[in-house]
Amino acid sequence: MNVKRTFGTVLTILGIIGLIYAGYGFVQHSQQTRGLLVYGIIGLIFFVSGIGLVKNTKDEV
Hints:
Blueprint: H1 3-27, H2 33-56
Helix pairs in contact: 1-2
């Protein structure tokens, strides 16, 4: 079991959840714009780093 690949998958899923939450809040015109911006930025960072870990980690045989 590759720990880096698993951690990358978890980060990617958390990033997707953060981006969806921020997008949903923006569409609903929520009053907490700063909070939604923080969720969006953190979600984007998690998503990009998770994809990078999954992509750059080689399979163990």
